[in-house]
Design brief:
Largest sheet of chain B: 7 strands, mixed
Radius of gyration of chain B: 13 Å
Strand content of chain B: over 45%
Radius of gyration of chain A: 13 Å
Distance between the termini of chain B: 39 Å
Strand content of chain A: over 45%
Helix content of chain A: under 10%
Number of strands of chain A: 11
Oligomer: heterodimer
Order of helices and strands of chain B: EEEEEEEEEEE
Number of helices of chain B: 0
Chain lengths: 105, 116
């Protein structure tokens, strides 16, 4: 089973600040996918196939990476971006990272 | 419009069996795969298992011995049964449409508490 490790676990960013969340896989994966989850809601697909934005996702978000290292970047933090973000991979089965809680500073 | 909705008992006693239903609309189970995913309070997401469009199943090895997923295509329903429940099985349980690589449609979830 491939283990995904996200960092940081928690972070706070000011409006307008650049944010980067990383996800490291215990073995190489072909793609990484990301979800946004707000309290009391189900996760929403956010970035799929490493770098493709899901419908309705603002273009200040981007995804990149390859092999065992992937990242989600927000070019300019906005209040509505406060949430927990999870990375996820598929390689014979699905696994999720532990999540990164992004708060407003 | 694709929708998934979970239903089931909110409270289950320890050692008992959990039965949940995922009712889907806007898609056919014979051409779509559905997974169950759970999330303990304040914790992360755990994929539990999938029923493929052809009816085959795969399970998370950590819970495989306790888990069964089935479906009724005529009713557009997917079922989860998990036995020998313990307090650590307390979680929000989601069903989600499984594209091969990721999950693009999720239900609202159903909270299950394991307690006597």
């Amino acid at each position: 089973e491939i283990v995904l490790t996200q960092s940081p676990t928690t972070m706070a960013a000011s409006p307008g600040e650049k944010v980067t969340i990383t996800c490291r896989a215990s073995s190489s994966v072909s793609y990484m996918h990301w979800y946004q989850q707000k309290p009391g809601a189900s996760p929403k697909p956010w970035i799929y196939d490493t770098s493709k934005l899901a419908s309705g996702v603002p273009n200040r978000f981007s995804g990149s990476g390859s092999g065992t290292s992937y990242s989600l970047t927000i070019s300019s933090m906005e209040t509505e971006d406060t949430a927990t973000y999870y990375c996820q991979q598929w390689s014979s089965n699905w696994t999720f990272g532990g999540g990164t809680k992004l708060e407003l500073k | 419009q694709v929708q998934l909705k979970e239903s089931g008992p909110g409270l289950v006693q320890p050692s008992q069996t959990l039965s949940l239903t995922c009712t889907v609309s806007g898609l056919s189970l014979t051409s779509n795969s559905v997974s169950w995913i759970r999330q303990p309070p304040g914790k992360g997401l755990e994929w539990m298992g999938v029923i493929w469009s052809n009816g085959g199943t795969d399970y998370n090895s950590a819970i495989k011995s306790r888990l069964s997923i089935s479906r009724d295509t005529s009713k557009s329903q997917v079922f989860l049964k998990m036995n020998s429940l313990q307090t650590e099985d307390t979680a929000m349980y989601f069903c989600a449409r499984s594209r091969l690589q990721y999950f693009d449609y999720w239900g609202q979830g159903v909270m299950v508490t394991v307690s006597s």
